């Protein structure tokens, strides 16, 4: 196809929409060898990219989110309630509720419409270490240092009978994705005793336990096509079959503790039957069909990839079907604890104790840019639902919002009185960012 | 059975003496008395060696007893102090204990303006002017007495240049200048050697503050950027105040405690 050299992204967008015969024009971004075209082809590729004008070039288009998350600028509410450090927080798949777990042994549910407390879930006898919403937004699972997992009904605040079995602190939880099980009955929990258990939350019993790690398991993820991924302090990542708990593969490569895992499909798996237009679950079978289409369109574009980060300062990008990594992502100078895939799986953000947030290419693992600004260790990082912004929480008590395209800081959000342990961006329309930390206050940030 | 194990063989064949258990019990009961008597009688090198051996044995015994005690008593639940809660990714890391300075910035400003601080040493001995300033006689005949020598430690900024002798009323000897202070953080209970940035207040008056005289009770500003303290807005704290707790002129060093 012959194009004028002055073609701008807008012009290319019109062209692609015309070629694909889209009924409504959709936004796209364009790349030549992973270099994004921002102003026009002549400037970005020929002048900046040092390409000859005599060459035929391949322009790759990448669909963008059709909605835009507005920039986060201010704190709309500071919700007191937990009088001790908040260790974990998680938005419900629709983004209308927030669950937080704290050192004061309670789990609290906050209503995001009014930004007020909704329920206080008491039952644990030790610090709550992780909370996780079921993908139908009905249940909240919490894991604690008292070695139990509890599952609560979010609308009534009932439930919370202990599920016993682990002999160590629960470090991570993962629900079965909505598209493979619309009833949301299975939950995987990772523990410091080195095992991962899969529970039937209706009958509150262990379906099977997966032992094989020789050190505490720090992360667990439930993949889209029947695989469970676990990362452990024994330096390995293991892949298990979600059907019977059989060990499928062991991924070796890290030289130190594995801290966290992330999936390229994570956003879709987390939100299940919800998206920016569907805020209510409604009919379960309809929601299931919606989740299946969302998952299959994403997976058709690119297969599921797994990312692991470690104390050896590196990240590994894995294709779960092969024991060899796709790429080893080096560049950080301190342990990496927070990683996140962008909702469409095209970008990776990683947060490290060296105070930087780094962006990587989601398919190849190529380093894109480093975002500096935090003066302390960065603990957690999260993408906005449209994939255009990143929020990070740090030891220096601030939350910062970054622009993905330029790598510039979009907003600095001070206000916490102490270290920020958790940041989460509301799925759905992405109107809110919640953060919690050592000072025990939940802060909601909005446009 | 080997040939030399005739005792065992005899025991096997005929059994032990009838009072064997009784004798054994008595012997073990007597053992401690015997040992005590020996320990009292022994002297010289033998005593030294013997006591050393007994000491080691006793330690071992105490440890064993303690181990048994621990096994027999029920363990308390693991520490559930809610303030020490950490996210999983920070568990089992050797975290530095960091003190917080996240104090109210406005309050801090107000205090600064009033030059009033809650100091660990609220009252110090007043230092007389005669003690600090030594009169230097100048002039051809040594009749002029307007020049003073500061006989205490002083902090002089790095950019300071001495005035010409004609105008220099106060001489601050280079040998008595200080640049760094050993500052203790009261919460961390740790001491750091930090650069002095300035003298904020000397309790003996404004002139001494202006001259940078460092005596006991003086509030100095130190460079704490190495400690990694952050303000509420996420900036690294640079300067913080500290109060001098020793007499630098006696010790030759400046010790101070950080005002948090």
TrEMBL record, chain A:
<feature type="repeat" description="WD">
    <location>
        <begin position="371"/>
        <end position="412"/>
    </location>
</feature>
<protein>
    <submittedName>
        <fullName>Putative Angio-associated migratory cell protein</fullName>
    </submittedName>
</protein>
<dbReference type="InterPro" id="IPR001680">
    <property type="entry name" value="WD40_rpt"/>
</dbReference>
<keyword id="KW-0853">WD repeat</keyword>
<feature type="repeat" description="WD">
    <location>
        <begin position="163"/>
        <end position="209"/>
    </location>
</feature>
<dbReference type="GO" id="GO:0110136">
    <property type="term" value="P:protein-RNA complex remodeling"/>
</dbReference>
<keyword id="KW-0677">Repeat</keyword>
<dbReference type="InterPro" id="IPR036322">
    <property type="entry name" value="WD40_repeat_dom_sf"/>
</dbReference>
<dbReference type="GO" id="GO:0000027">
    <property type="term" value="P:ribosomal large subunit assembly"/>
</dbReference>
<dbReference type="InterPro" id="IPR020472">
    <property type="entry name" value="WD40_PAC1"/>
</dbReference>
<dbReference type="InterPro" id="IPR012972">
    <property type="entry name" value="NLE"/>
</dbReference>
<feature type="repeat" description="WD">
    <location>
        <begin position="210"/>
        <end position="250"/>
    </location>
</feature>
<dbReference type="InterPro" id="IPR019775">
    <property type="entry name" value="WD40_repeat_CS"/>
</dbReference>
<feature type="repeat" description="WD">
    <location>
        <begin position="413"/>
        <end position="447"/>
    </location>
</feature>
<dbReference type="InterPro" id="IPR015943">
    <property type="entry name" value="WD40/YVTN_repeat-like_dom_sf"/>
</dbReference>
<feature type="domain" description="NLE">
    <location>
        <begin position="2"/>
        <end position="40"/>
    </location>
</feature>
<dbReference type="GO" id="GO:0005730">
    <property type="term" value="C:nucleolus"/>
</dbReference>
<dbReference type="Pfam" id="PF08154">
    <property type="entry name" value="NLE"/>
</dbReference>
<keyword id="KW-0539">Nucleus</keyword>
<dbReference type="Pfam" id="PF00400">
    <property type="entry name" value="WD40"/>
</dbReference>
<feature type="repeat" description="WD">
    <location>
        <begin position="329"/>
        <end position="370"/>
    </location>
</feature>
<feature type="repeat" description="WD">
    <location>
        <begin position="79"/>
        <end position="120"/>
    </location>
</feature>
Automatic annotation (TrEMBL), chain B:
<comment type="similarity">
    <text>Belongs to the eukaryotic ribosomal protein eS8 family. Ribosome biogenesis protein NSA2 subfamily.</text>
</comment>
<dbReference type="GO" id="GO:0005840">
    <property type="term" value="C:ribosome"/>
</dbReference>
<dbReference type="GO" id="GO:0000463">
    <property type="term" value="P:maturation of LSU-rRNA from tricistronic rRNA transcript (SSU-rRNA, 5.8S rRNA, LSU-rRNA)"/>
</dbReference>
<keyword id="KW-0690">Ribosome biogenesis</keyword>
<dbReference type="InterPro" id="IPR039411">
    <property type="entry name" value="NSA2_fam"/>
</dbReference>
<dbReference type="GO" id="GO:0000466">
    <property type="term" value="P:maturation of 5.8S rRNA from tricistronic rRNA transcript (SSU-rRNA, 5.8S rRNA, LSU-rRNA)"/>
</dbReference>
<comment type="subunit">
    <text>Component of the pre-66S ribosomal particle.</text>
</comment>
<feature type="compositionally biased region" description="Basic residues">
    <location>
        <begin position="13"/>
        <end position="35"/>
    </location>
</feature>
<dbReference type="InterPro" id="IPR022309">
    <property type="entry name" value="Ribosomal_Se8/biogenesis_NSA2"/>
</dbReference>
<comment type="function">
    <text>Involved in the biogenesis of the 60S ribosomal subunit. May play a part in the quality control of pre-60S particles.</text>
</comment>
<keyword id="KW-0687">Ribonucleoprotein</keyword>
<dbReference type="GO" id="GO:0030687">
    <property type="term" value="C:preribosome, large subunit precursor"/>
</dbReference>
<feature type="region of interest" description="Disordered">
    <location>
        <begin position="1"/>
        <end position="35"/>
    </location>
</feature>
<keyword id="KW-0539">Nucleus</keyword>
<dbReference type="GO" id="GO:0005730">
    <property type="term" value="C:nucleolus"/>
</dbReference>
<dbReference type="Pfam" id="PF01201">
    <property type="entry name" value="Ribosomal_S8e"/>
</dbReference>
<protein>
    <recommendedName>
        <fullName>Ribosome biogenesis protein NSA2 homolog</fullName>
    </recommendedName>
</protein>
<keyword id="KW-0698">rRNA processing</keyword>
<keyword id="KW-0689">Ribosomal protein</keyword>
């Amino acid at each position: 196809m012959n194009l004028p050299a002055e073609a701008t992204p807008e012009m290319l967008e019109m062209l692609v929409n015309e070629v694909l015969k889209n009924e409504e024009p959709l936004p796209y971004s364009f790349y030549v060898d992973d270099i994004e075209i921002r102003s026009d082809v002549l400037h970005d590729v020929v002048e900046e990219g040092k390409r000859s004008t005599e060459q035929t070039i391949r322009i790759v288009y990448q669909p963008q989110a059709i909605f835009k998350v507005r920039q986060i600028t201010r704190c709309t509410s500071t919700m007191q309630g937990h009088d001790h450090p908040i260790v974990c927080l998680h938005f419900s798949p629709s983004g209308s509720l927030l669950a937080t777990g704290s050192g004061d042994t309670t789990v609290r549910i906050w209503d995001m419409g009014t930004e007020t407390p909704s329920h206080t879930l008491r039952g644990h006898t030790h610090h709550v270490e992780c909370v996780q919403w079921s993908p139908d937004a009905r249940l909240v699972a919490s894991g604690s240092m008292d070695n139990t997992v509890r599952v609560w009904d979010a609308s009534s605040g009932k439930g919370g009978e202990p599920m016993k079995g682990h002999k160590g602190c629960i470090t991570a939880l993962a629900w079965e994705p909505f598209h493979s099980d619309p009833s949301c009955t299975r939950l995987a929990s990772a523990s410091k005793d080195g095992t991962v258990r899969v529970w039937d939350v209706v009958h509150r019993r262990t379906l099977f336990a997966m032992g094989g790690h020789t050190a505490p398991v720090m992360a667990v993820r439930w993949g889209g096509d029947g695989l469970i991924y676990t990362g452990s302090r024994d330096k390995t990542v293991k892949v298990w079959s979600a059907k019977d708990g059989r060990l499928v593969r062991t991924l070796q490569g890290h030289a130190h503790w594995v801290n966290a895992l992330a999936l390229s499909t994570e956003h879709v798996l987390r939100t299940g039957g919800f998206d920016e237009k569907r805020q209510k679950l409604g009919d379960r079978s309809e929601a299931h069909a919606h989740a299946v289409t969302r998952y299959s369109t994403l997976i058709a574009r690119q297969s599921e990839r797994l990312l692991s980060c470690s104390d050896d300062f590196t990240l590994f990008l894995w294709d779960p079907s092969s024991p060899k990594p796709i790429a080893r992502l080096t560049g950080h100078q301190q342990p990496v604890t927070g990683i996140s895939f962008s909702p469409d799986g095209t970008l990776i953000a990683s947060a490290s104790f060296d105070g930087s947030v780094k962006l990587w290419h989601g398919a190849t693992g190529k380093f894109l840019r480093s975002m500096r600004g935090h003066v302390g260790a960065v603990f957690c990082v999260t993408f906005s639902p449209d994939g255009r912004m990143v929020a990070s929480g740090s030891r220096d008590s601030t939350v910062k919002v970054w622009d993905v395209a330029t790598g510039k800081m979009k907003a600095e959000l001070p206000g916490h009185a102490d270290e920020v342990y958790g940041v989460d961006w509301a799925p759905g329309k992405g109107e809110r960012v919640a953060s919690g930390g050592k000072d025990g206050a939940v802060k909601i940030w909005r446009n | 059975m080997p040939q030399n194990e005739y005792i065992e063989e005899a025991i096997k064949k005929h059994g032990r003496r009838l009072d064997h258990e009784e004798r054994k019990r008595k012997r073990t009961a007597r053992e401690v008395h015997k040992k005590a008597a020996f320990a009292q009688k022994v002297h010289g090198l033998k005593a030294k060696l013997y006591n050393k051996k007994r000491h080691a044995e006793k330690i071992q015994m105490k440890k064993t007893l303690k181990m048994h005690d621990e096994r027999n008593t029920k363990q308390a639940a693991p520490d559930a102090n809610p303030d020490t809660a950490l996210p999983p990714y920070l568990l089992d890391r050797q975290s530095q204990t960091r003190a917080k300075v996240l104090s109210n910035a406005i309050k801090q400003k107000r205090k600064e303006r009033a030059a009033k601080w809650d100091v660990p040493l609220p009252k110090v001995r007043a230092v007389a002017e005669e003690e600090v300033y030594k009169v230097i006689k100048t002039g051809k005949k040594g009749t002029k007495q307007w020049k003073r020598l500061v006989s205490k430690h002083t902090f002089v900024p790095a950019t300071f240049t001495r005035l010409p002798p004609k105008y220099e009323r106060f001489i601050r000897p280079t040998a008595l200048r200080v640049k760094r202070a050993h500052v203790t953080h009261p919460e961390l209970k740790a001491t750091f050697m930090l650069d002095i940035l300035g003298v904020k207040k000397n309790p003996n008056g404004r002139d001494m503050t202006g001259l940078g005289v460092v005596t006991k009770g003086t509030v100095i500003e130190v460079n704490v950027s190495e400690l990694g303290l952050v303000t509420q807005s996420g900036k690294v704290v640079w300067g913080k105040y500290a109060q001098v707790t020793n007499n630098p002129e006696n010790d030759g060093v400046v010790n101070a405690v950080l005002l948090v």
